[in-house]
Structures are given as C-alpha cells and as structure tokens.
Amino acid sequence: MSIISVKNLHKTYEGGFQALRNINLNIEEGEIFALLGPNGAGKTTLISVICGIINPTEGDVMADGHNIVGQFREARSKIGLVPQELSTDAFESVWATVNFSRGLFGKPKNPEYVEKVLRDLSLWDKRNNRIMELSGGMKRRVMIAKALSHEPKILFLDEPTAGVDVELRRDMWKMVSGLREQGVTIILTTHYIEEAEEMADRIGVIRKGEILLVEEKATLMERLGNKQLFLQLQQPLSDIPQSLTDMPLILSDDGLQLTYTYDAQHEHTGIAELLRALGDAGIDFKDLRSEQSSLEEIFVDLVRAES
Fold it and tell me: Which range marks the domain in which residue 6 is found?
C-alpha cells in the first residue's frame, strides 16, 4: 500500500526556474526509500513539497490518504521531517524542545514516550543540557527526536548524516532500521552512496528535477551493475596483444593486471573465449577475481548518461 503518492508534480519558482518536472512517485508503507541525486537535483524541493513547506505549481501529493494542500493539518501530522540544516532553540533544554515540538502537533503530554525517543537516540543523559552545549552530532540527534516527537508514520531525513563522523553515522543507520521495524516509513536523501546501499529497500535517482528511475536496490544493481574480472599476470605486458584488442580489456600502468568488464546478466559473458585467447597469446596469469559494480559506480554512470 502506498503511504505517499505523488502525481504529475511540477514546481516552478518565480523567475521561471523549474525545480521539479512531472514527478510521479509512490512510496510504500514501511519501506526505506533513498533519493539520490547531485547537488541541485531537486531532492530538497521534492521533500519540501511533500511535507507541505512549499506549494506545488501543478500536481497532487497524498500522505497517508490526506491531500497535502487541501488537508494540510491531517497530512502534516503524519509526517516527521529532519531538515538538512541544523536549527534548534539554542537556549532550550533537550527535554523542553522535544516536548514543545510534540505540543505543536496538538499531541497530549506523554513523558514516557519522549523518554523512550531520547533513550533510543542516546540523548537521555543530555536531556537537561541546553542545545547550544551539544556537539553537532548530538544536535542532529535532537532534530530527529523533534521529528519523532508527535509519533509520525512517515519520517523524512534530508542528508541525515552530513558532517557527522562514521561512528555516529552507523548509530543512525541502526536507529533508522529500528524505526522501520516499528512500522515507520523512512525517506532519506543522501550524498553518501553507502548509506543507500546499506539501508534502502528501493532507490530513486533524481537529476535536474526529473526522476530518472526508481528500482529495488537489488534489481538496480543486477540490471545496471557490470562485473569486472581482474587477472594478475605472471609477467608484465608492455601493451595488449593485437589478438586481444577487440575485447573490453584494460591493462594496468605496471602491466601486471588485465581488467575485463562484462555484463553478468548475459548468458554469454565471453570469459571462456578470453581465457582461451590469453592461452593462445602465451599470457599466463597467477590469480583472478571478480567484483560487482558498486552502487556509486552505477549512480555516476546513470547521471553521466543523462547529461
């Protein structure tokens, strides 16, 4: 079941800049959806429209069955948003700011729930600290706590781990996985490809305000991911022999490694022919290994292909 439905969405700003073009997107309840794209691709604009922060020029957005424009209050109550920029009340305590955020959505006081959120985010020991006293990583945790304060069914994370260290990033991944287990739908934008690769069920790629594709992560890697075969040679080559120049081979600078690229989805990979041709050319190798393309390589290839 789609908890977010975006249909024929366009956003054009004053001055004529078209930030979003004909976006159609369904996000399923309980999934983790990663939106990837270069700077200026439209990621934050799309999130801002879905969250009701800016109005679309054309199109419809539904959040848990509520129209984000016509039923703004109902729709927004279902959504938690952790923005990219840190903006918290510097002089408020952690406990006060999270409880205040809960009250903004008309939720009754629930200290037990707020305590659970703070404990889950390793903020309980900091509950009486003023925001200004916290590190950048802790401030980001407070932003997440504020977004969760009103018990939303949908959580948007806009570049959630930008500028935080690797250990904190791993903690956040664990927290996000825990939220999904509780039934919260997670949508994140990220520049960290490994973040999407680690957590996402599905991945959308956006560029210049248009969705290039939406795929299951595994399907995306299978469909677009080349494999490479690396052959460590017994003796260095000065160049690739003429008999092998028609094959997709790259010789390393030191002449000791040949790299063969092939499509793992094709029944005919050409590896058998390659090995025979190497034998015929008198080229011996001492080791070979294969690697799947990373999601980052796939993403770069996609964006380059659309340039």
Answer: 2-222
